[in-house]
Specification:
Length: about 325
């Protein structure tokens, strides 16, 4: 009899989404004009790899901060595996792993100790903590540097260690805030592989990024966020199909583009938009076929140094939705 409520609680927490945000808001004190997070509704299912994609200042870290109990919402609710992040913060903390945007490794501890003490902090026995640390060092290819200190390893290794530590206590939902910002391309790809492998543990992953390729490569679904609001949320393929461009041609020119050139490009058949970034001109069109050839021919006398053709990208989605560039 007495176990019935407990059974029900377990059943409801199994059925609950990994993350559910309802009208979530954050206005920082003293800055009423900045709505860091301005009414976000999102639902992430268990086992999903979910991305928050948006430019700097969009509200990604603030959203993650609220989901991970570090920042107190000023409105709405956030539930992790059915538990409210404010009312049930202590239980939420045991179910989540977090890698924040800044390196939070303990610099006075070795890599092995960083992992082992994390286990101890979560109440694991010395023996279990040691075994888990060894297992993770092996799995994250850090075993040969186990005795090193965080200052003695590369940025890519430090980031791997942060992820290893974040999952050490076997959380259900892992939050990664800009996990590859500042990493070289090789380390970035290595980390992507690692994140993909985490799925094998059945983890739900919520990551933020301002790299469209990262969101596109890794995520089952992506919420595009700007000024604290979700603009669209869907599978990358669907977003590109519905909100993107058919194709984008990027030209690199010897000289700055003239208004006359931009107008000429804009008048080409099938071209939907033309914009300029430094020495590059980006031309979006509804269709792949022949777009590159037509754009290069039309730009002929402007000194085209390089030209490339891409299918639709999440960048194009963002530009179409906001009129701005993700990189701005
Ligand atoms: N501690 C803070 N105090 C005041 N304003 C903040 C604070 N943290 C972030 N902001 C502001 O909130 C907005 C969203 O920031 P943030 O969540 O860090 O965005 P992102 O992670 O997408 O770059 C920005 O305008 C930022 O300047
Ligand atoms: Mg951020």
């Amino acid at each position: 009899m007495s176990s019935a409520p407990a059974v029900r609680a377990v059943a409801s927490s199994l059925a609950a989404p990994a993350l559910e945000l309802t009208g979530l808001r954050k206005h920082y004190p003293g800055q009423p004009e900045v709505r860091a997070v301005d009414g976000v509704d999102l639902r992430v299912e268990s086992g999903e790899m979910f991305g928050l994609l948006g430019p700097n200042g969009a509200g990604k870290s603030t959203t993650v901060g609220m989901c991970t109990t570090r920042i107190r919402p000023t409105g709405g609710t956030a539930c992790v595996t059915g538990l409210d992040v404010v009312a049930d913060a202590a239980r939420v903390k045991r179910r989540i792993g977090v890698v924040t945007q800044t390196n939070t490794l303990d610099r006075s501890l070795t890599l092995e100790e960083n992992l082992r003490f994390h286990g101890r902090y979560f109440g694991w026995s010395a023996r279990d903590s040691r075994a888990r640390a060894a297992e993770l060092l092996e799995r994250f290819r850090l075993a040969d540097r186990a005795g090193a200190f965080p200052d003695q390893i590369s940025g890519g290794m430090a980031q791997r260690l942060q992820v290893a530590r974040a999952i050490a206590h076997r959380p259900e939902v892992l939050f990664l805030d800009e996990p590859t910002a500042g990493l070289d391309p090789q380390s970035r790809i290595a980390l992507w592989d690692l994140v993909r492998e985490l799925r094998l543990d059945g983890l739900t992953v919520v990551l933020t990024t301002h790299y469209m390729e990262e969101a596109d490569e890794l995520c089952d679904r992506v919420a595009v966020i700007d000024h604290g609001r979700v603009l669209v949320c869907d599978a990358p393929e669907t977003l590109k199909e519905v909100h993107g461009a058919g194709a984008t041609v990027e030209l690199t020119l010897d000289e700055p583009a003239t208004d006359e050139l931009l107008q000429r490009l804009g008048r080409l058949e099938d071209v939907t938009s033309v914009d300029v970034h430094d020495d590059r001109v980006r031309v979006m069109g509804g269709d792949h076929d022949g777009l590159l050839v037509r754009v290069v021919a039309a730009a002929g006398d402007a000194g085209v140094r390089d030209a490339s053709l891409q299918g639709s990208t999440l960048e194009a989605v963002f530009i179409n939705l906001t009129g701005r560039d993700l990189r701005e």
